[in-house]
Amino acid sequence: MGILQFFNTQDKIFVPLFVSVTSNLGELSEILKKVIETPVGEREEMAKQAQAMDAKGEKLLRSIIKELGKNFITPFDREDIHDLETAIASTQDFVHGSLKRIHLYHVQENDSHFIELSDQIILGVSKLQQACELLISMKNAAQIKSICQEIKKIELEADAIYDRATTALFEQEKDPIALMKKKDILEALETATDKIDEAANIIRSILIKYA
To answer: How many CA atoms, within 13 angstroms, populate the side-chain half-sphere of residue 17?
Structure first.
């Protein structure tokens, strides 16, 4: 697809779908934090709600792939659309996976490092949604680039939190089973922020091609 064609295309399919799926992911991320902050015995309803939101997200993601197969004209390269869908799908997998681990492992609430990482996920997903909204026009390229840079900073902060959390875990946790459970959760939370940054990197590549 040529650059002039891109500038003249008001996409009504893919960008709205990306906005919808990242909006849903934002709500799922908020539930993740609530689960962390809620006592073990009071999480069941939130876990069910998260399961429903994960299913909704999966449906939206499948719609992106379905529309990719139906539409010859796309707002940007088909490969970039597919790669962005994949990165967002992976983010959702790790956000929901983190939530399920916390719920199923019966890890006690209010772990400060879990909360810090969930805050970075919420912030990163919010920024990703903003970037997707702005993809409707390459006139927004400078703003999108700035948002992607903010996402990189969020990912770096999450790395630092993960390092502190892992150090503290091995110093303080004496129960080997509890240690393995918490390390698994920390890794899933940190990986979610990596996947958000991966999605931002794909958006950067779109800017390089078309801006």
So the answer is: 23
DSSP 8-state symbol, 105: T
pLDDT digits (tens, 9 = 90+) for 140-190: 999 999 999 999 999 999 999 999 999 999 999 999 999 999 999 999 999
With beta carbons less than 8 A apart as the criterion, state whether 152 and 200 touch: yes
d(Cα 180, Cα 103) in Å, to the nearest integer?
15
Distance in angstroms (rounded) separating the CA atoms of residues 47 and 83: 29
* Rounded distance between C-alpha atoms, residue 99 and residue 7, angstroms: 40
Going through the chain in order, the beta strands assigned E by DSSP cover none
CATH assignment, 3-210? 1.20.58.220
Count Cα neighbours of 2 within 13 Å in the Cβ-side half-sphere: 3
Q: On the CB side of 45, how many CA atoms lie within 13 Å of its CA?
A: 4
The reported pTM is: 0.92
Distance between CA 157 and CA 123 in Å, rounded?
11
Distance separating alpha carbons of residues 142 and 161, to the nearest angstrom: 29
